[in-house]
């Protein structure tokens, strides 16, 4: 609001107009309706937690080596999860999947007015194939392509951003650099892979992501859970229990894994699905915790 | 709220009646008629209510002070330090007979001329005796049986040596222990009467007595002795070593050996009388590895060899004492009051064979430390009398039986003589202490004394019953000494729980009151003031009267003043609650609405809970940083949600800036002992020095270069870099910072001896420079703050030349006259920029008072505060009275407390900063300067609290279109109400933290870490609350008066 307002209050044109009409937000994205997708979407978080638990001792013993060794496996698990269970960016499935059941009708008129943003504007054939694609090959390509892209973006963009965030939150800067980067890489794979796969580089969605304003769905819930879990994971570090697992990235990473699994599972409950985190109005508890 | 480009408001002079007194009214000509009267009336109302608000703050301060007083009274028991000294000429008996004038000793015939006193730091008793399992399963560990020399000699030659458990009085830290081992008195957390800055012992003590008697004293090892006894030791022979580096096991020990053994050689024996050797290796091995480690075994074996070598080099007239000053716990640390920490060992050795045992049972050294222990203070009378010195005046210890019983163990007359002397001295001390304290003598101990005296007289008169009477009087004297010791221990070490509970209750209800007042009222708080204060006053008055009458009628044991204060505080709170709750329409549920409110509550509450844990107390600096980053990230998220692009961009920019600045500041660290080894100090040149590294001297110059420009950029953002701001920020502030840089440059030159100038010259130049800066900040700054105009510039231009002018409305007659436009630059941030001058003044003074690294930190703090204000503005948090701004300022202040080289321990108080602008201690200035150094960050943050509602606050004046319609619509009182709400929220944060640390310290009063962690944190929190209460009242809220009237004078009320 312009601070000159009181002076020019008599002058209606100078008072600021409302921001341009809001673009309808991308709807929440649900797990694909196929049986396999539904089953694996439950197996996946459990699998990750099992991995985390099984490798915990080794993680405490030799953190850097173990994190490095687990990274490809985590990437593989995340890719298979998104390919099996989630609609890729730009696909009509993204809309339909998000609107199965009752929401289908609501979503249907929306899709022409706000076409899901094409991932690669330079490849016009891509979407056409998508619509007509009945061949297995094209379907697989349509899924693998965004999966590959999401891996690239995750490692190139999300990892450095998360590493910087870790340092800003107090991770050591002069020592433990491999730990920080690897921890960030794990968190990035957990949180960003599915987001990029589903939403591509849709600027509006990413603005919502930065504003923690996405409607809750398994993809967003697990990403948020990863961040919150990592935040809470920092809590036991200062305690004087003298346990080897209190060393820097371990608790944060375990917190992130647990947060991922919880976020992925909880966000599917009808109570939360599709809701948004409110900042200003009288929305409580839930919002207070949204940190990191 | 947008800020960029909003600074210039443009109005056509015909555009409504709200224009300020424009140039068409020829400057300052008063508006006619009722408007003038109305403005005066509004101004008067503002000033009256402002005073009322100060009254409320004063009352809050009183409540806090009362709560802290009652808790402290029960928690930190103090001991008066008596200045009296024992003297050789005056015996301690009532008749004051002159002592024997021979050269054989003062009060008692001396046994030795010389002594070698060896302290092996942390020598626990079970290290020295053969391992005896308590239970079947217990096995000898690495620390057992490695220093057998003490036990062997005591068993093989009982007349030459004895070994006893030696019980320390907690706190078991070396400094406190050395005090006990030389003065013979009990430690308390605060020894009232100790001098302002130093740690030197004022009380009568063994070292001072030896020095006074003309003995040559040598000290080797731990440099704590130098701090306690400056100037007592022979300069050339003494070699202190730094005791800080617990990672170094050998430097100190090897150093002591290097200088000790040459002194023991026959040709050097005449050079000294008493040697104090202090080995630290065992202690450091404990700290570093814990007792059960091969390094400890090796260290103990080395000590064993050292003692054997000393024995070999000893002559007949020299007494050898070896002792531990405390033990260590299973992790090798100490400081608390657990058995392992207090059970040290004492071993005395002489080649002459004068030690004895009065009973066969006591021939062998005790197997465990629980048997026949002697308090550490017993060393003082023992050593004094063995060396022919008077017993130090404050001593409460008893002579150790073995040392005076004679080789055959039946020298009762000697035992009685020494115990009679000791008892007489204790009695003399008790009498003097009772005089100072106004307390009477204890009946039981008086009876014991009389009985002992009676027996003694019988023994000396009648020859027959001599031996039994002597033994009886010996036993009675001992009983008297122990009885007195118990009384004193009870007096100085017992917590007064009811008083502590009273204090906590006062603090807690004070917080509830603040919650209600700051967060639960939906009316103009200034309107409430008269009623609130009068009800509180009535409550206080009746409470005080009730207290006084109760105390006078003798219903309670409390003193009149205590009871009156307690009931006055309670009564005033009841009155205040009543006045606030009377009208339920004014109330709202004091729960936060929205994310920001909950976040503020979350920060405060989780930090308060964390103080229950010693870990979270130790790592408070990191936790605060974590919270601040969390806030910054939340602010970034919230900014992303803003609809206006300018708000979004600016908000995200300042959030990122806020987080990065905090991270940069976090590199300035001064680690506390408990943070080792996970922390590296950067505040000083090295972890063992307290001077700045040469490169750090560049920081003040960088601050000079950049800080004014940074502040300027925030003024320019709202086009407020006008008027006084250019001179103030661009010139005066920068000049002050430059002089400060010069000051610290000279300080560095002095430390490093870079300049060929005399120290005195350098000192006087520096003092002058520092006083100049303070005069600029507080003298000139305050004067200018009173009279300065707001940061605006008003200009008139014709429309066609003004590109900022809105599209010209079609007004008839426009063609005839050239259209005039009044442009006011800096209109967007009138209140904020004007008030910020006060913050700048204090920032300058606080920067002067910090070490170079701390100056960088304070500069970052100022930047972060400004950044925070922009975040609050872009997220619409200034006008919604959100609690997050004041709470984050609280976090910022606490965070930068740690970044300016402080920790919540007494040892990090930078006493030397009192000498920055002064060459001697001057009351009250010296303590104030230390406060400015210690709490500088929090003071600065507190001063910025009003800005959380003033920054970019739009100008509001009363509605002049409907004259005299509504008396209540005084915008300036709304402003005042918002300010007091923000200020009370800030106090609420600090008061909650203070209550938490208070309660935890009280609850954990038997905790091992009480003296090291919880007590100092409580003291810091309580002092801080008092300081900030005063700063908010006297400077922050008071300053709002001048900034508001100055705006009102130009733009009307």
TrEMBL record, chain A:
It is a multi-pass membrane protein. Pfam families: PIG-F. One of its GO terms (biological process) is GPI anchor biosynthetic process. It is found in: Endoplasmic reticulum membrane. GO terms for cellular component: endoplasmic reticulum membrane. Signal peptide: none annotated. Pathway: Glycolipid biosynthesis; glycosylphosphatidylinositol-anchor biosynthesis. This is Glycosylphosphatidylinositol anchor biosynthesis protein 11. It comes from Penicillium cinerascens.
TrEMBL record, chain B:
Pathway: Glycolipid biosynthesis; glycosylphosphatidylinositol-anchor biosynthesis. InterPro entries: Alkaline_phosphatase_core_sf, Phosphodiest/P_Trfase, PIG-O_N, PIGO/GPI13. It is a multi-pass membrane protein. Its main location: endoplasmic reticulum. GO terms for cellular component: endoplasmic reticulum membrane. Residues 1-10 have a biased composition (Gly residues). Residues 1-33 are annotated as: Disordered. Pfam families: Phosphodiest. It comes from Penicillium cinerascens. The chain crosses the membrane at residues 51-71, 499-520, 532-553, 560-581, 593-611, 623-640, 652-671, 683-707, 727-746, 767-787, 831-849, 878-898, 928-951, 979-1001, 1022-1043. Residues 11-23 have a biased composition (Low complexity). Belongs to the PIGG/PIGN/PIGO family. PIGO subfamily. GO terms for molecular function: mannose-ethanolamine phosphotransferase activity. Keywords: Endoplasmic reticulum, Glycoprotein, GPI-anchor biosynthesis, Membrane, Transferase, Transmembrane, Transmembrane helix. GO terms for biological process: GPI anchor biosynthetic process. It is found in: Endoplasmic reticulum membrane. This is GPI ethanolamine phosphate transferase 3.
């Amino acid at each position: 609001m312009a601070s000159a307002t009181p002076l020019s209050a008599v002058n209606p044109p100078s008072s600021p107009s409302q921001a341009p009409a809001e673009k309808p937000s991308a709807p929440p994205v649900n797990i694909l309706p196929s049986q396999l997708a539904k089953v694996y979407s439950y197996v996946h978080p459990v699998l990750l937690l099992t991995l985390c638990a099984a490798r915990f001792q080794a993680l405490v013993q030799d953190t850097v080596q173990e994190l490095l060794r687990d990274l490809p496996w985590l990437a593989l698990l995340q890719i298979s999860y998104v390919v099996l269970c989630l609609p890729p960016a730009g696909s009509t499935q993204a809309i339909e999947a998000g609107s199965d059941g009752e929401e289908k009708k609501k979503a249907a008129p929306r899709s022409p007015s706000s076409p899901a943003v094409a991932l690669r504007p330079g490849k016009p054939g891509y979407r056409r194939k998508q619509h007509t694609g009945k061949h297995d090959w094209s379907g697989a390509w349509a899924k693998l392509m965004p999966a590959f892209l999401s891996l690239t973006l995750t490692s190139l963009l999300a990892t450095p951003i998360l590493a910087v965030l870790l340092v800003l939150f107090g991770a050591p800067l002069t020592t433990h650099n491999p730990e920080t980067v690897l921890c960030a890489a794990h968190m990035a794979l957990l949180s960003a892979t599915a987001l990029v796969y589903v939403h591509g580089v849709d600027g509006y969605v990413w603005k919502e992501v930065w504003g923690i304003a996405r409607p809750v769905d398994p993809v967003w819930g697990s990403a948020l859970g990863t961040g919150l879990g990592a935040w809470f994971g920092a809590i036991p570090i200062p305690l004087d229990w003298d346990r080897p697992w209190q060393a820097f990235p371990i608790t944060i990473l375990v917190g992130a894994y647990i947060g991922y699994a919880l976020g992925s599972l909880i966000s599917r409950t009808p109570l939360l699905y599709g809701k948004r985190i409110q900042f200003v109005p009288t929305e409580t508890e839930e919002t207070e915790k949204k940190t990191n | 709220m947008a800020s960029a480009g909003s600074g210039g408001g443009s109005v056509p002079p015909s555009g409504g009646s709200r224009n300020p007194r424009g140039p068409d009214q020829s400057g300052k000509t008063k508006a006619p008629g009722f408007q003038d009267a109305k403005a005066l009336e509004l101004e008067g109302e503002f000033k009256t209510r402002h005073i009322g608000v100060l009254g409320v703050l004063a009352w809050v301060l009183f409540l806090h002070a009362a709560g802290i007083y009652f808790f402290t009274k029960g928690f930190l028991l103090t001991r008066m330090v008596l200045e009296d000294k024992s003297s050789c000429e005056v015996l301690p008996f009532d008749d004051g007979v002159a002592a024997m004038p021979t050269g054989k000793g003062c009060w008692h015939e001396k046994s030795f001329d010389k002594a070698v006193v060896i302290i092996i730091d942390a020598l626990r008793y079970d290290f020295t005796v053969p391992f005896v399992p308590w239970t079947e399963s217990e096995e000898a560990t690495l620390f057992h049986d490695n220093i057998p020399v003490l036990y062997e000699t005591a068993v093989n030659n009982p007349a030459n040596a004895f070994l006893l458990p030696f019980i320390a009085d907690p706190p078991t830290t070396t400094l406190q222990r050395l005090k006990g081992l030389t003065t013979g008195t009990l430690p308390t957390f605060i020894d009232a009467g100790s001098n302002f800055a130093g740690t030197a012992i004022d009380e009568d003590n063994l070292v001072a007595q030896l020095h006074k008697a003309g003995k040559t004293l040598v000290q080797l090892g731990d440099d704590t002795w130098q701090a306690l006894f400056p100037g007592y030791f022979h300069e050339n022979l003494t070699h202190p070593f730094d005791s800080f580096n617990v990672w170094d096991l050998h430097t100190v020990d090897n150093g002591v050996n290097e200088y000790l053994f040459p002194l023991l050689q026959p040709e050097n024996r005449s050079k000294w009388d008493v040697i104090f050797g202090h080995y630290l290796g065992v202690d450091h091995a404990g700290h570093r590895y814990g007792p059960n480690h091969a390094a400890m075994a090796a260290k103990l074996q080395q000590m064993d060899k050292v003692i054997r070598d000393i024995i070999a080099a000893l002559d007949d007239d020299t007494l050898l004492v070896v002792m531990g000053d405390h033990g260590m716990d299973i992790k090798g640390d100490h400081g608390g009051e657990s058995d392992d920490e207090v059970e040290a060992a004492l071993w005395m050795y002489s080649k002459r064979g004068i030690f004895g045992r009065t009973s066969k049972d006591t021939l062998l050294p005790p197997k465990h430390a629980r048997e026949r222990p002697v308090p550490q203070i017993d060393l003082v009378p023992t050593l004094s009398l063995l060396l022919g010195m008077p017993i130090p005046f404050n001593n409460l210890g008893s002579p150790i039986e073995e040392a005076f019983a004679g080789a055959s163990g039946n020298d009762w007359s000697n035992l009685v003589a020494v115990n009679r002397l000791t008892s007489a001295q204790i009695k003399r001390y008790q009498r003097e202490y009772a005089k100072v304290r106004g307390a009477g003598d204890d009946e039981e101990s008086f009876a014991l004394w009389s009985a002992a005296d009676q027996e003694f007289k019988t023994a000396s008169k009648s020859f027959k019953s001599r031996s039994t009477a002597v033994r009886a009087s010996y036993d009675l004297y001992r009983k008297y000494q122990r009885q007195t010791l118990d009384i004193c221990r009870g007096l100085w070490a017992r917590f007064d729980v009811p008083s502590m509970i009273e204090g906590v209750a006062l603090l807690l209800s004070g917080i509830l009151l603040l919650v209600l007042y700051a967060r639960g009222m939906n009316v103009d708080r200034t309107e409430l003031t008269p009623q609130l204060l009068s009800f509180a006053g009535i409550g206080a008055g009746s409470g005080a009267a009730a207290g006084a009458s109760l105390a006078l009628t003798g219903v309670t044991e409390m003193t009149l003043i205590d009871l009156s204060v307690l009931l006055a505080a309670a009564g005033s709170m009841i009155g205040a609650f009543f006045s606030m709750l009377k009208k339920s329409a004014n109330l709202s549920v004091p729960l936060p609405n929205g994310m920001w409110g909950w976040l503020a509550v979350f920060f405060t509450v989780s930090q308060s809970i964390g103080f229950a844990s010693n870990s979270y107390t130790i790592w408070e600096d990191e936790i605060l940083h974590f919270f601040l980053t969390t806030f910054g990230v939340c602010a970034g998220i919230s900014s992303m949600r803003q609809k206006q692009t300018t708000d979004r961009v600016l908000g995200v920019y300042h959030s990122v800036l806020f987080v990065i600045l905090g991270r940069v500041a976090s590199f300035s660290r001064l680690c506390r002992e408990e943070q080792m080894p996970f922390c590296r100090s950067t505040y000083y040149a090295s972890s063992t020095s307290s001077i700045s590294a040469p490169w750090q001297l560049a920081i003040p110059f960088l601050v000079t270069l950049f800080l004014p420009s940074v502040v300027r950029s925030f003024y320019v953002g709202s086009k407020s870099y006008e008027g006084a701001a250019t001179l103030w920020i661009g010139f005066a502030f920068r000049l002050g910072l430059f002089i400060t840089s010069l000051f610290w440059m000279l300080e560095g030159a002095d430390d490093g001896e870079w300049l060929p100038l005399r120290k005195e010259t350098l000192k006087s130049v520096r003092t002058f420079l520092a006083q100049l800066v303070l005069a600029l900040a507080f003298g000139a700054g305050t004067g200018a703050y009173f009279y300065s105009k707001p940061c605006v510039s008003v200009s008139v231009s014709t429309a066609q030349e003004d590109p900022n002018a809105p599209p010209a409305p079609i007004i008839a007659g426009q063609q005839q006259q050239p259209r005039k436009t009044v442009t006011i630059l800096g209109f967007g941030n009138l209140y904020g920029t004007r008030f910020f001058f006060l913050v700048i003044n204090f920032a300058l003074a606080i920067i002067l008072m910090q070490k170079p690294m701390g100056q960088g930190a304070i500069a970052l703090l100022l930047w972060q505060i400004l950044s925070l204000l922009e975040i609050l503005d872009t997220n619409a948090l200034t006008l919604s009275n959100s609690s997050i701004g004041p709470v984050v300022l609280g976090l910022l202040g606490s965070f930068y407390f740690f970044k300016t080289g402080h920790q919540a321990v007494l040892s990090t108080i930078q006493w030397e900063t009192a000498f920055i602008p002064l060459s001697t201690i001057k009351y009250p200035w010296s303590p104030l300067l230390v406060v400015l150094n210690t709490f500088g960050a929090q003071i600065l943050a507190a001063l910025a609290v009003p800005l959380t509602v003033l920054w970019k606050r739009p100008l509001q004046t009363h509605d002049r279109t409907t004259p005299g319609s509504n008396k209540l619509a005084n915008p300036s009182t709304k402003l005042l109400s918002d300010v007091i709400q923000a200020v009370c929220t800030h106090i609420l944060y600090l008061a909650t933290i203070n209550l938490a640390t208070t309660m935890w310290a009280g609850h954990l009063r038997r905790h091992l870490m009480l003296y090291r962690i919880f007590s100092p944190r409580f003291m810091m929190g309580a002092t801080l609350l008092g300081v900030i209460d005063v700063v908010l009242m006297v400077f922050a809220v008071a300053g709002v008066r001048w900034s508001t009237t100055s705006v009102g004078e130009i733009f009307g009320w």
